[in-house]
Amino acid sequence: MRNEFLFNHKKGHGEVTKCDVHSVASIEKRVPLFEAFLENGVNWTRRPLHAFCWRPDAKIEPLEDIMYWDCFSPYVDVQRRHRLAGLQAELIRPDNKKVLGEYMFTLDWSWENKGVPDLNFSETPEHKCAHLFKVETGNYYAYPNNRIIWYDNAWVFDRIEKNPGYEIDLTVYSVENKRKLETSDHYMYEIKDLDNK
User: Where are the beta strands (DSSP E) in 111-168?
Assistant: First the structure.
């Protein structure tokens, strides 16, 4: 962890302390905030991503360059997606420069509490997640799918250089209540098509 994040940015610049990052807090309209256990026995909560580096001499990068989005809801799932595990990718920064990174894990937001109105943006108009990478600059990045071009020597043979015209699919897919059917109470029920009576 960069030491200035331990001293309210008043001192510690250019110094680091080893730590074990072990959890994440998701507060809407803020960046994901990480909790770290320091080697001196102190546990710090709610530090932003740019508080951490994997190379002690890494130059700190602005938070808005290393991640694109704030949290979309208070409900976040942390996953290591096996299909992406071990892969590298080019991350397209806001200035359109590319940086190489190695995939670590994914933050995926949703709305879990059905007893509270869903007033956030985790699932509408489109879904976003943040893939976390260990980047060649010595820092960590958290980027969405549409700012990542993956490498996989056994699968990717024609990597894109620009958007091939893909557009975000805003369709909500569901099959419930799309058919005009009637069923019975029997275990292996028969279906009556109400359109063809």
Answer: 129-135, 140-143, 148-150
Helical spans, DSSP H, in 9-164:
63-66
Question: Who contacts 65 (Cβ-Cβ below 8 Å, separation ≥6)?
Answer: 93, 94, 95
Using DSSP's 3-state secondary structure scheme, residue 195 falls into: helix
Tell me, what DSSP letter sits at residue 3?
Answer: G
Q: Which of 45, 107, 31, 117 is nearest to 76 (CA)?
A: 107
Which residues partner with 20 through β-bridges?
37
* Cβ atoms 135, 100 nearer than 8 A: yes
Record the pTM: 0.84
pLDDT digits (tens, 9 = 90+) for 28-68: 889 999 999 999 999 999 999 999 999 999 999 999 999 99
Q: Give the integer Cα–Cα distance in Å for 47 and 32.
A: 8
Q: Which residues pair with 129 in a beta bridge?
A: 108
Q: What is the pLDDT of residues 69-100, one digit of tens each?
A: 999 888 899 999 999 999 999 999 999 999 99
